[in-house]
Amino acid sequence: MKVVVYEGARSMRFEERPEPKAEQGEVIVGVKYCGICGSDLHAYVNGSMPPGIVFGHEVVGTVVETGQGVEGWRLGERVVVQASGSCNECYYCRHGQSNLCVHAFERTNGISPGYDGGLAKYVKVRYPRDMLHRIPDEVSFEDAVLVDTICVALGGIRKSRFQIGDNVVVVGAGAIGLCAVQLLKIGGARHITVVQPSPAKRELALGFGADVAFSPVEEGSNLQGKLVSFYDNIGADVVYECAGTVEAFQSALGLVRSGGQVLLLGVNEKPAPVVEVELIVREIDMKGSIAYDEVDVQICLDFLARGRFRTKGLVSDIIGLDEAIDKGFERLTALKGLVKIVVAP
What we know:
By secondary structure, the protein is α/β, with parallel strands linked by helices. It has 13 helices and 15 strands.
């Protein structure tokens, strides 16, 4: 089968590899769609992943083969493939924090060497008990492919100090930021401000429930004063940094009130200066969030099945596997107004 192989910074190639076979306890999923994640794009641009990996951890498809000992899964079932399987034995798994499993990254499809992802016709699922989730009949593949993205935002919000009636800011209106806006609206935020350079993404954010949306480029040094004025001149209760840039990180610190929280969802690989005295004197709580757990997946699928979550506008394009490099990674790198590109192998 044809796969897309990552070689390093701005370098990918197509390659023919054998179709995977289900061994003891494994399931093979025929890939219907695979989303290109922001972390995939970061690695493509910066060369931060080991070469030889087949990217793609946002996978939906159907069960096409089950190995010996697999129970509970039938051929043809529609499934969401969670990126990694937890060990269920380490400290974090035993304490309800499976997203922090010490073996998570080494078991993650599309990230760990030897665990090929979904930019291929088939993907092997080694831990089906933890990684496979049935797609409800009411949910289309086109919506289900967004489950990973929605859950990253949902997991972060659930871990944050957000409460009904809070004033919040979302810095960065990419796929995760736009999902966060909608979830915060569903969750009862009093006022939502979005900070995003792209006019198209600002428009989407307003449609998803943001009250106002500002361009950090156009507002410049006026941004902090203008935004803080919405919130009794003290700032937002919680700021969600979803852009993964040094500028977004610094902006988030200036927009949160004293005693408030900055929740980091964006992945920034460059050193970001932190003025410790500001964190101390203003008692700012800073928290990171990685991935999500099974509860987030079930909440997300339930929202989608009941029509509680709007997906229109989140997928910018669906392309073929042959187009994954030029019309996928390269186009996402060049065109900042795109949100999510999905590959259909």
